[in-house]
Each structure stands twice: as C-alpha cells, then as structure tokens.
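Researcher: Please translate sequence to structure tokens.
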Amino acid sequence: MKLNPHILIVDDEPRMRDLLHRAITSWGHKASVARSGEEALRVIQQEPPNIILLDLNLPAMSGLEFLERVRETHPATEIIILTGFGDLDAAKKAIHLDVVEFLTKPAHLGELEQALDRARKRLEETTAPAAIAPLPPALPPDLPPATTLDALEREHILTALARNNGNRSATATELGISLRTLYYRLNEYQKQGFHID
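Model: Translation complete:
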C-alpha cells in the first residue's frame, strides 16, 4: 500500500517555510507548518504528522531538543533534518536519534524529494502487515500423538523426513544431526513398527 504522508515543516524562516510548503504540496502531499518547536508540538498534539522536516536552528527550543521530545512521544514519526546550522555534533546526535536524512541548506529540491521518498518507504515498512509464518506441514497420517519425550523426538524426526520427501541427507542437515544418527533412529522406529518411507 502506497502511503501519502502528512508532512510537518518546522522552520522559523518565513520564506523557506513557504517555499517548502509549496514544493511539498505540489508533489501531492498534505503539509502543515510551524515556526518553532513549541508550535510544532502543539500541531503534533492536534494532528500527528507521518514525517517532520526540521530546521535545527529554531528560536527558544532548539531543533535537537524538539527532536528528542518527538522521539519520546511519537517514535514512529520519520524526521528529515534540513538546516543551515549543520555542525558535526548536531549531525551525530541527529543520526543517533534515527533521522532519515541530514540535509544542509541550500539543498536541491531533488535531494529533498529523495529524502521524503526514503521516509515514506520507511513508514510503509513499519505499517505493512507482518508476513504470516507458514504453517508446519501436516504430520504423516500414521503417527500417534506424542506423549513422551522419545515420542516427541520421533514425531519431530519423521515430520522432517516427510518434509524432505524421504531425503535422509537433507533431513539430517535440517535437524542438525549426523546422517549416522538419523539412520540409527529410523532403524529403531522401524523395529517399533513405524512405517519409514
């Protein structure tokens, strides 16, 4: 399922905020804006975004403080840093806080579009339903239910043998036992009256 994310732009420069809002909405995304970290936190409470485009150099609360708060309350939100304030320590901390991308201004719109695409893909991976584990194959019909440890081991070995279509080498490998041990066990089961293919 292709997600159309809601993007929150957090930037204190009106011209940059307006430019980013126009670009992002022209790409077909829903976008909101905030001038500060405090305003952005209020927006998030009303309508949590999927992706935040964040400037680090904000008035009052810094972009990194805001990022830490978002990680505490909305850990699944994807965050892209877009800042003119790009020092190494800030970049390291942002990476530690699992941002999608750390872009420095002036960034090309193509770079921003790629970062948004990466963020959207990460969101889709986290919201995709988990793959359903396949059911184990049915037991061979002539096996009685296991009631002892020996019977459980026998059931396990014979089920693996059936799953491998009687291939002894593949069965021994799957079970993590030697071929000699497998032959010994199968011989014992035949003596007990079990049919071995």
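Researcher: Any highlights?
Model: The domain at 6-127 is CATH 3.40.50.2300 (Rossmann fold).
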